[in-house]
Amino acid sequence: MKVNKKRWLTAGVATVLVTTMLAGCGTGGNTAAPEPGKAGAAKPFEGKKLTVVTANHPWGEAIKPLIPEFEAQTGMKVELQSFFEDQLTQKLTVQFTSNSATPDVFMYRPLQEGKLFFKNGWLAPLDEYTTKDANYDFNDFSKSAIGSTTVDGKLSGIPIITEQEILYYRKDLLQKAGIAVPKTLDELTAAAKKLHDPKNEMYGFVARGQRSPLVTQVSSFLFSEGGDFTTGDKATVNTPEAIKAFTTYSSLLKDYAPPGVLNMSWPQAFGIFAQGKVAFLTDANSLYKNVTDKEKSTVADNVGFALFPAGKAGSKPYNITSWGLGMNSKTANKDASWEFIKWATSKDVVLKTQKLGNPGARASVWDSADGTSGFPAEMVQVIKESAKGGVDHDRPVLIGVGEARDAVGAIVLQGMSGGDIKAAADKANQELQAIIDKEKGK
User: Tell me, what CATH number does 177's domain have?
Assistant: First the structure.
């Protein structure tokens, strides 16, 4: 998912970036850190140079001023590069296809390109590294977040940004109408209907309506009804549970959303909610500042946050890693690369980045007052509760994820147009199964 980003890439950095990316390898072999207390332990990687690539993302901005701390601790020099999100995958793919040893460490989206990168041998498995240092406390990470970065039973990356789908609502509208915060999907539908007043430009509900973007958000409806995109190697988007979920989501958009919802991804959905024209919105918690920032939102003081409404299977929102840190399998600096990843995802650094509004995956940080200081108190409780029963994916976990999302999204579009959802689901299921079979070599 794309979040609101400050584009800080300068022309000078861009020049260094291009030069370095073309340069390929040449940073030396693996160097294991000396044991504590032995000579050189204070500067275990003296003289080493790492290339680290991030997306133009708030986490990248938060980690940048902390780099000198890491360099002082290790004796390493870190060259931090940044790409706009829509360029990142393309740049990394070019590098990895040419077997480049750089970048050493990179930011990536586990559920969007993680399976492709891992299957192509571009991501180094990290399982063995996580147990080398007991102080790292790998068990502190959310199991769902780790599930997002695991491919075929192998740990392909470490979570740095997590997301859960939550319910945003207008406190003032609910209070005035005497409506309790919806705890179930049926209650959400009833409340949206009651508050829907299009003649006065007030709409009951909004969410993503574009074919591909909507898939990640309908996922929580699907899980909460007891369904999933796949079960093992079988597509399951035409089960009764799935059809119920797609029907609920498409009906909410068809009956209670603002005009133009078919063209809405998250910026448009949050934008109209922030204009004070919608009662309910379901989307990622990481985007909350778009409706609480008084410079962007006319309803900033009246936004509430709630656990995703329960379906037949309870409240089962996605609880995913949207961004992780991976290690280039071709890097000549594996131990040094892990040292950076270990530092960047340590309790201390996660605390520092999370205080700036970057939701991390460490339970201990969420349990600390400092760790939650960058988020509204009401949201903190929702995040903690969501993490307990959350699902580790928000889309079909396939290499051909783009094709898969288009197939699933078509079901909702059919429902929004008043068409036959069952027929659309059967067709989508066939298409999804064909993608699965192709990837399995069947």
Answer: 3.40.190.10
Q: Rounded to whole angstroms, how far apart are CA atoms 406 and 212?
A: 5
Task: Give the total number of structural domains in the chain.
Answer: 2
Q: For residues 181 and 212, what is the distance between their CA atoms, to the nearest angstrom?
A: 29
What does the chain come to in residues? 442
330-351 core/surface letters (b: 16 or more CB in 10 A; e: else):
bbbbbbbbbbbbbbbbbbebbb
- Distance (Å) of CA 273 to CA 228, 297, 347: 28, 8, 35
Q: Is the pLDDT of residue 8 over 70?
A: no
- Say if pTM beats, i.e. exceeds, 0.85: yes
Contact 72, 42 (CB under 8 A): no
pLDDT at 42: 64
245 falls within a domain = yes
Is residue 5 a part of any domain in this protein? no
What would the pLDDT profile of 98-134 be if each residue is shown by its tens digit? 999 999 999 999 999 999 999 999 999 999 999 999 9
- Same domain, residue pair 250 and 141: no
**Residues 175 and 142 occupy one common structural domain:** no
344 phi, psi to nearest 5 deg? -65, -25
Cα-based angle 323, 313, 320 (whole degrees, multiple of 5): 5
Q: Which of 140, 146, 330, 312 is nearest to 242 (CA)?
A: 312
* Owner of token pair 């093992």: 232
Q: Taking each helix axis from N to C terminus, what angle separates 85-97 and 11-23, rounded to the nearest 10 degrees? A: 20
The range of the structural domain enclosing residue 125 comes to 11-156+320-389
- Cα separation, 248 vs 241, in Å, equals 11
Residues 139 and 267 grouped into a single domain: no
The secondary element (H helix, E strand) that includes residue 326 is strand 319-327
Q: What is the mean pLDDT of residues 63-72?
A: 97
Whole-angstrom distance, CA of residue 387 vs CA of residue 61: 25
Average pLDDT of the chain is: 91
Say whether both 283 and 365 belong to one domain.
Answer: no
Q: Are residues 253 and 324 in the same domain?
A: no
